[in-house]
Amino acid sequence: MTHPAMEYKNVTGRIYDIQGYAVHDGPGIRTTVYTKGCPLRCLWCHSPESQRRELELGYLPVKCLGTDLCRDACVSACPEGAISRGEPVKDLRASGMIQKPAIDREKCSGCLKCAEACMTQALYASARDTTVDEVYDRVIKDVSFFKNGGGITISGGEAMAQFEFTYNLSKRLKSRGIHICLDTTGFAEAVLFERVLPYVDLFLYDIKHMDSARHEKLVGVPNELILSNARFIAARGGALQIRVPVIPKLTDQESNLRRTAEFCLSLGEAVKLVQLLPYHKTGRMKYDRLGWRYKLANVEPPDDVFMGGALAMFQSYGLNCQLH
After folding, report:
1. Most exposed: 36, 81, 179, 287, by fewest CB within 10 Å?
2. Across-strand partners of 202?
3. What CATH number is given to the structural domain containing 195?
4. pTM value?
């Protein structure tokens, strides 16, 4: 793929993390930039902090040393009276009891003054604003680790929801010849994918459900745009790594998985790999940090026998498929 002149704008974006030595976000060893904000609301989302574009208050009780030690700094800092002294709990670092803050999420305005006052960052902002150049300067330090076809992955949330940031960061990184993956739900205007296509080596592309009405019920939006954009990228020479979440009783019906396999097959050589993503529980504690209710608390991961059968079915279509 040829690349136009690498002119870019040093625009601002909002990110919630940058993780080095990532091995599950595309080929090789990578550094992943996580942007904040997503138009979808997947019931099984394992990164709830990525959903809303606005900054949110997070709380990690394990980092809190107690309100006595900080002289009620967070309680005093809150202008809405949303933070108070909680019930005494056992001090895990010493004998005795300590009081930690109790957060009234209904009163919280999201001003984050309590996070600014917190000496241990037990209270924290869910994201930060940065620029293309700042992110570039950070991730370029990892170049020596990009083994086995590694590089940078721009993820989310939905990276296309902050298009100017994602677009210009991709151009900036591509100027160094770095392999770029874009992790996307596919829910953005086709013209935006057309613009970013010359700078993306591989799209990590989610296909969550093939029935549009069911798709909307599960994630909040229909799937027509997502499927048409996959066809659009394939027709224009883009490379796709399709990712299929397998969620018990929600997306794991054989009819849906077969339709997904057939759709992947229809995209031809553009599909380099299909990954089946079995549901897992690792993101549940993040909901507690934000004061959210996790809606799939009673769902258990699919067993190995089921996932092996699903893998064999996708492979029977001649697809290069693996469990993720």
Report:
1. 81
2. 181
3. 3.20.20.70
4. 0.94
